[in-house]
Amino acid sequence: METTxxxxxxxxxxxxxxxxxxxxxxxxxxxxxxxTLDAAREKLTSGQKHLDELKHQRRDAEGLVxxxxxxxxxxxxxxxxxxxxxxxxxxNLQHEINTLKSKSDELQxxxxxxxxxxxxAEKSVAAVSSEFKTFEEEWNRQQQQIAGEIEPLKANLxxxxxxxxxxxxxxxxxxxxxxxxxxxxxxxxxxxVERGICRSCRISISASALQRARSGQPVQCSSCxxxxxxx
Length: 231
Ligand SMILES: [Zn+2]
Known about the structure:
By secondary structure, this protein is mainly α. The chain contains five helices and three strands.
């Protein structure tokens, strides 16, 4: 086989190996990476904590209302119980009841607003919880998928590398050295030639260079320096 064809195939293999190495590195970094899952769980936990605080506030507010209502009841019992007959004392009791009732209205309004807040937070936590469940299922599914892809990918890479070594072994060492240097410098070491033009830099190749390249010997493009390959 002509050297340039071998070099072109070597480059195809190297490109495939690079892509698969990258893919493997990405999968390895994704495997067991709980960052997004932990963030989603943290959102749920903080929502639940907020809900607990609101429920606590609601209990406190309801407790205050109960206290005032029971005070009103006691004071009314004193007022209407018949034991107190002094008009001044009766008037004081009535005044106290009025004050307690207005306090009770105020506290009931506060309690109602905390009840609304609890209901809204409960809805929000339910939504976040359901979102989290979906996210966690998807995360587990992805992790399983990634774990299942890693071994076949490693095996495939090992095969490709073996194939590459075999092919590289058939090419003369100085040519491999040139190829390696060009690949490090330009990523693409071998350029296809189409209709007498280097496809990498779009420069016309001289007739003599084309003739040498056709024989399969490594000829570098006079403009970009890549090894020319005529398919
Ligand atoms: Zn070129």
